[in-house]
Design a protein that fits this description.
Elements: E1 15-19, H1 37-46, E2 54-60, E3 65-81, E4 84-98, H2 115-133, E5 139-144, H3 149-154, E6 158-159, E7 164-165, E8 176-181
Parallel strand pairs: 4-5
Antiparallel strand pairs: 1-2, 2-3, 3-4, 3-7, 5-8, 6-8
Length: 182
């Protein structure tokens, strides 16, 4: 198979990660657009001042362009089994988004793994390392927008089980609670 020299592959993009401290600390977040105004607005207006999460940007060092961002938060999930309520520690991926210009870019010519998958797997790896070395938890939870559910399923997440209680936050209306065992 001949390699397409003009094709863009994720493996060829020079990625860097940085903790977001201010809106324009490393690279401007103002041009970021994942196709969801609420998620865009969180990054542009609230992420650097949210005391309940730590936000990181992934950016293309050559283009000086934000490709993706994610916010992590300490959390828990509540299980109600036979009227017995138990809270278990978890890490929540409060936000994860990829700019529309970088979605669906194959990571390499040879597989169906995308740049988005690669970035997300690195987020999972970071959470795994944190829970192994710093603070124990045995699950990662997130609340998916409906159009992203298949992405998360492809990357190992499943919907909450019937005895797992979801957050009642109005911000999460319409979102699908999902988890992954660590």
């Amino acid at each position: 198979m001949k390699k397409n020299r003009d094709a863009i592959y994720g493996e060829n993009i020079r990625l860097s990660k940085a903790k977001l401290l201010t809106k324009d600390d490393i690279v401007s977040v103002q041009t970021f657009d994942c196709g969801n105004d609420v998620i865009n607005n969180y990054l542009k207006e609230h992420a650097c001042n949210d005391p309940r999460s730590a936000t990181f940007v992934i950016y293309d060092t050559k283009e000086n362009q934000v490709i993706s961002y994610y916010s992590l938060s300490c959390s828990g999930f509540v299980m109600n089994h036979n009227s017995h309520i138990t809270i278990y520690p978890a890490v929540e991926i409060k936000m994860f988004a990829v700019d529309d210009r970088y979605k669906h870019i194959p990571f390499s010519q040879d597989d169906s793994f995308t740049l988005s998958d690669y970035i997300f797997c690195n987020v999972i790896s970071r959470v795994y390392d944190f829970t192994e070395k710093e603070c124990g938890a045995d699950k990662i939870i997130l609340y998916s927008v409906p159009r992203a559910e298949n992405f998360y399923i492809k990357n190992g997440f499943i919907r909450f089980q019937e005895f797992m209680l979801k957050s009642e936050s109005m911000f999460l209306d319409g979102c699908i609670p999902m988890y992954m065992d660590l």
